[in-house]
Amino acid sequence: MHTIIESAEQLEKIIQALSREEGLELESLYRDVLSILNNLPEKISISEFKDSEIESLKRTFLFRKGALNQLFRFIPFLPDDLKRSVGAAINKTKKKFESVFKKKEEKTEPPLKFDVTAPGRSPEVGRRHIITKTIETVCDVMRQLGFTYTEGPEVEDEYHNFVALNIPPHHLARDESANFYITDTTLLRSQTSPVQIRYMEKHKPPIRVFAPGRVYRPDTIDASHYYAFHQVEGLWVDEGISFAHLKTTLLLFSRLMVGENIKVRLRPSFFPFTEPSAEIDFSCFICGGTGCPTCGRKGWLEIGGCGMVNPKVLRYCNIDPEKHTGFAFGIGIDRIVMALYGINDIRLLFQNDIRFLEQF
């Protein structure tokens, strides 16, 4: 076995001599190389070498910059007969050591331990986002109330987002600072109300639809504001629809969504597309109306806005306001999520932090 170590050392010395260009005859050196390689034993047992010796042999016989590979550099300058003999000897030696070390690695790899009788591991299953789950619940509740699902584009034109909703040209709601404009007349929708316009343009009363979706406003991001959030739009247009229908619908929605003890409060307000208009408050889900940090100690949560559809809006959709009336409401889904799950910062809903999401 020491013959192999000595042979490796001799090859290293020859490479060093070649690199120093000491004026030695190339043919003489390569005849020594041929003698060294031909005298290597046919069978090599790596198990009898120390770890340090094994690494040394790898460097000499297998590495790309090892002595054996370096010998190829000068073969083109040898006589033809010696060129063929040396090339064949180098290739034979290289294959021999590759085979030996491959067998060693196969032997040293630990056998795989697998118990075929052991029960399998259950795959890790993800879960739906709490916003997604809440939207699905909202959809189920609205269907129970007799409403039909519809949807509209998130990229809207000014007509559907403003004009048909009776929002005049110089209204602050149309300002560039209050919207994400894409072009002069195209923007990301700032509310789900354009969906009701598109639906009324294509359908005639009776109309009873709801439309959940994402809306966009360039609000300053803080604990209660984000540039994208979710709403659900509700619309009911028919003969004889009154504010009483609106209030009853909201009361039933709140009880089916949250619980029987929820109260609904409507505060007078103004929206260009409804007349009369109101803000929607639900009694706090957390404290039951007694006051807590979630509701700001008020006992009430502001959920959205509502009102009777403005006659001008109906006319834009070619619906006769003398014959048909209707109500519309928009409820903030994210606010419901925050109240249901006791979340005090809306930013947590959109950060995709697994530490937060895996709690629900």
Layout of SSEs?
Layout: H1 2-20, H2 26-38, H3 51-61, H4 67-70, H5 80-108, H6 130-144, E1 148-149, E2 155-157, H7 158-161, E3 180-181, E4 186-188, H8 193-202, E5 207-216, E6 228-238, H9 243-257, E7 264-271, E8 274-283, E9 300-309, H10 311-316, E10 325-332, H11 333-341, H12 354-357
Parallel strand pairs: 1-5
Antiparallel strand pairs: 2-4, 3-4, 5-6, 6-10, 7-8, 8-9, 9-10
Helix pairs in contact: 1-2, 1-3, 2-5, 6-11
Task: Write a structural description.
The protein is an alpha+beta fold. It folds into two domains: 2-108, no CATH class; 130-357, Bira Bifunctional Protein, Domain 2 (BirA Bifunctional Protein, domain 2). Helices cover 39% and strands 19% of the residues. The chain is built from twelve helices and ten strands. The chain has helices at 2-20, 26-38, 51-61, 67-70, 80-108, 130-144, 158-161, 193-202, 243-257, 311-316, 333-341, 354-357, and strands spanning 148-149, 155-157, 180-181, 186-188, 207-216, 228-238, 264-271, 274-283, 300-309, 325-332. The strands form two sheets. A seven-stranded mixed sheet has the order 1-5-6-10-9-8-7, with helices on both faces. It has a three-stranded antiparallel sheet with strand order 2-4-3. α1 (2-20) crosses α3 and α2 packs across α5. The longest helix is centred in the first third of the chain and has 29 residues, at 80-108. The radius of gyration is 40 Å and the shape is elongated. The two termini are 66 Å apart. 28% of the residues are buried. The model has no long low-confidence stretch (mean pLDDT 85).
